[in-house]
Amino acid sequence: MSRPGLDVARVRTDFPILHQEVRGRPLVYLDSAASAQKPRAVIDAISHFYTHDNANVHRGVHTLSERATAAFESARERVARFLHAKDDKEIVFVRGTTEAINLVAQSFGRKNVGPGDEVLITELEHHANIVPWQMLCEQQGARLRYIPVDKKGDLALDRLDELLTPRTRLLAVTHVSNALGTVVPVKELIRRARARGIPVLVDGAQAVTHFPVDVVELDCDFYAFSGHKLFGPMGIGVLYGKKERLEAMPPYQGGGDMILSVTKEKTVYNRVPYRFEAGTPDVAGAVGLAAAIDYLERVGMEAIAAHDRELLAYAEEAVGQVPGVRLLGQARERSGVVSFVMEDIHPHDIGTVLDREGVAVRTGHHCAQPLMQCFGVAATVRASLALYNTREDVDALVRGLHKVREVFA
Ligand code: 7TS
Question: Is the CB of residue 215 less than 8 Å from the CB of residue 208?
């Protein structure tokens, strides 16, 4: 179906995996927040790399190695432009959001967070933006503090000034909540933290897929995201870091390619970003990620944002009308996901019935257990939307939920 600005029918033809039946029904994929599907352009770019250019990077002078190096570095430039970073050397390739946050925790964190210091996060976070900070705080004798979330799923920003203390060494916050879809006003948080000289890391895993992001305009110190949620391959992700921040940080892992010279006694580390990229990187992954970004920008991030907003409003309305459904999260601004519970029917049972109808959703705590505790639930059903989803997909979900009611009546 076509909407102004985004020809979804056309977009769907670019995603081969969508055109299959699951359990005898056409697949309705509503789990893109967990991992998004890949357009043909990404699959072809990876295949082309392995068919024509595969070699290790930065080490060889032979032609294939030069080509692989050029492809890897051009992917870095592509990512830099996508985030509107000033310099492609501010882009560190990692495995995903999780590794990006662990890198900052163990490199920036170990250097800058000491006994009695504080790291501030929020109750909205995915475990990937909680556990690395808990580990750091335990190692350093520091304290992890949380900005609370209110009943609607917004952060209680009236508490921010009191939580940003002279001991706060970093604020780490999600841009969009994976469990509720809350869009956090990160720009305001960054402004208020930076006014006190406190650096900010933004977890952009669920944001870059839905709207344009400009790290310079946000003025964040770090920004992390995963390739596989951005319609690119698994195993590749990005840490953006302001150059002066990255340059002041020690390496995260030691090994090949992150050095300038090694003697038996001492290593001189390579410059940024290579200092943080020990070992053979996922070159094909970076190539695939660049292809995904090219694809998204051809479709148009603004058009994608408009489509996603419109479809989310439709989905919230339609799902909210199913008898017995309670939607979770009424934050001022939301993106990408509809999270709900249904009377006393267990979310896993709902997910199982939906799967029989060909509808893929995620059920569980969504790796956001502290947030689930705030809302007094152990788990929810989460339908997540992407540029290839249609109103018909939402209608299929709603029909499935009526089926759930019949089964458990
Ligand atoms: N941060 C957020 C906000 C996320 O949603 C996720 C993954 C991560 C970090 C971790 O990303 P990774 O690529 O390093 O694993 N979120 C989900 C999800 O919602 N369902 O499955 C994974």
Answer: no
